[in-house]
Design goal:
This protein is an alpha+beta fold. The protein has three helices and five strands. Pfam families: MaoC_dehydratas.
């Protein structure tokens, strides 16, 4: 991670994308253990099918964690001032997730120079799964 300077960032700049391996059962089990979210819809195929899903699917918070990784690959986590998302689609088993971010505003607040970013995850078909924004102090 390099030091990003406010002066060198422009509205419209994009963060280096974060491409991840396809979602698999191991990733879901590991995330369930790490997060404490053992909701059966994410780990039990029979339960997911009874609920009307074709199979288990990724935790929304796993995708949010991936977006957090995108941000902290760009700046130190101590520079994050805000981060929020909205879940707009289900990330299915086998989906290949790519996280992206774009600078949409530059401003000063509370004595800091900040940028606002739009962030999202998309699957291999380009379909947004999670969208959100973040504020970073530079």
């Amino acid at each position: 991670m390099s030091t990003i300077r406010f002066e060198s960032v422009n509205i419209g700049d994009t963060l280096p994308p974060l491409a991840l391996p396809s979602i698999n059962r191991t990733a879901l089990a590991l995330f369930a253990g790490a997060s404490g979210d053992h909701n059966a819809i994410h780990i039990d195929t029979d339960y997911a099918r009874r609920a009307g899903a074709p199979d288990v699917f990724a935790h929304g918070m796993l995708s949010m964690a991936y977006l957090g990784r995108l941000l902290t690959s760009w700046v130190d986590q101590r520079q994050l001032r805000a981060f929020g998302v909205r879940f707009v689609g289900i990330t299915q088993l086998g989906h290949v997730v790519t996280c992206t971010g774009k600078v949409v505003d530059k401003y000063e607040a509370e004595g800091e120079r900040r940028v606002r970013l739009e962030v999202q995850t998309v699957n291999q078909y380009g379909e947004p799964r999670v969208i959100g924004d973040a504020v970073v102090a530079l």
